[in-house]
Amino acid sequence: MPKKLAAGNWKMNGLRQALDEVRALHDACPDAACDIVICPPATLIRSMVKVCDDMQIEVGGQDCHENSAGAHTGDISAPMLADTGASYVILGHSERRATYGETDALVRAKTLAAWDSGLTAIVCIGETLEQREAGQTLEVVGRQLQESTPDGASPETLVIAYEPVWAIGTGKTPTLEEIGEVHGFIREALVKRFGPEAQDMRIVYGGSMNPKNARDIAGIANVDGGLVGGASLKASDFYHIVKALDG
Ligand code: PEP
User: What is the CATH architecture of 5-246?
Assistant: First the structure.
């Protein structure tokens, strides 16, 4: 079984003072058994890397451009993220797919760019409520998985985040059985495509994970961690999720 991953997505939240939350998280669980990564806004990445220097906490970006440099005002490239000391990057988050029209093909190109810079890509996939209600969940997730990820993925370079769009920031979650069904489906697809080593590829769940539901979700087969938005902002909340993933 892969080592579980507790990933925090701070989205567009956090000023410098928020770095205290990372220190508090480390103080609360200095020797967590799971891997921890925090993806703060770009403005905090470098300072967070410095804060986490002697901690077991990694830092990641929330997006990167598919090109390594050029005339792309406001964008950040994968080599720039790597240059800050970041080691992960979230790609294809549903908020970026919805707001910026990011397609599976673009997410795939960004994943290749991330790999070129030695970053581990956390690629997000998940259905909308409409798609779930129409019984299209596995079809949508299967297609996104196939088209958003390049060939040649390994457990070190790729994490899949199953994030039902309707569960993000809403307080709603699928049932444990529904999460298990999709994660099992993703595992099968990964092994078929990338071979037996995909048994060790992490498939994390995201969507209103919180201190109350984390232990149940962490116990589902093929759930290898969580991608956590709101509940990752405060160490006092995220700590409980890390503990739940610690087993
Ligand atoms: C997310 O943004 O990836 C997420 C899962 O958000 P939340 O935990 O707030 O639903």
Answer: Alpha-Beta Barrel (3.20)
